[in-house]
Amino acid sequence: MTVTLNSSISAQLAVLPSLPMAELWALWDLYFPRRPSHRNRHYVESRLAYRIQEKAYGALPTNIRKMLVEAGAKHSKIKSAAGRSAQTLLMPGTTLIREWDERQHRVTVTPDGLYELNGQVFKSLSAAARHITGTRWNGPKFFGLRDRKGDGQ
Question: pTM here?
Answer without folding.
Answer: 0.47
